[in-house]
Amino acid sequence: VEVILDTPSNDYTRKLLAAVPRLRISPDASVSSPDNKAHKTGDLKENRYGAPPSFLAARDVCRTFGTSGLPWPFRKVPPVQALDHVSIELKRGSITGIIGESGSGKTTMGRILTGLQTASAGELLINETGFDLSRRGSRNGLLGRVQMIFQDPSTSLNPRMTIGQTLLEAARFAQNRTGDACRREIDRIMDRLGLARSFVSRHPHQLSGGQKQRVCIARALLARPDIIVADEPTSALDVSVQA
Is 227 a residue whose pLDDT tops 70? Predict the structure, then answer.
């Protein structure tokens, strides 16, 4: 094992080892210095993006799952409070990570922000346009503005559609372009994500888990949304692709 790790002979093995994240910080790095304003998170965002602080603002989002629809032995279980007055604000161009243990409501929050699920209560503002997250009709206004990269790519791709059809549908919906222009954009995104162009004629079951995940990422990018909600988007990718 030490020989493989220290002096790998296989090219792919070398690429995997080179892609392992390094957590070392050089001694002269001043990131941790509290007096260095150039390294403060808020200053970096302001200097780089210069956008208003509330491009997206979700306020007091609540979601309770009742037990009325369950078989009668489980109806005595009290309702589950998945989200309890959760609020979040994002700047345009910023990246925010939500950390929590399994079952803490991360995926539920993402599905509510994308309009795939209603909230028990809460409001969403996108560039000062308001949406009542508890009303099913309000979700229609989120279509195209928010896209989600799902945790499980196998269940988020239509098995009856080829990869090309899936990507073309996303490109046409968002870009309002001709077929040729959309196909050129699809080729560009596929090249960027390391997907062979021959994949357009394949169905999801003909791809590996990592390849399907990259297709889902491509679909979200082609839609050109204002916001992308990524639910563990690299969990199905190997280390070299994650890097």
Answer: yes
